[in-house]
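This is your field. Please look over both lines of this record.
***
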Amino acid sequence: MARRADILERFGQRVRALRKEQGYSQEAFAAACELDRTYIGGIERGERNVALRNIEAIAQTLGISLAELMTGL
């Protein structure tokens, strides 16, 4: 059985996919979330354990609910 990616990696992949789907560059997305670009990069690489407030900011910037952001994780 194949190893399922860590939750941080899966969350990061989900954020990256949704960000790209909406046409945001990493820099523009970070600015819209009021977060640092390197922090967003760390999230997308699965290197950051994201605070709940930042997860909420990401969902709001994407225009989706927290539940939608977590779909498929």
In short: DSSP finds five helices and no strands in the chain. The radius of gyration is 12 Å. Residues 7-21 form the longest helix (15 residues).
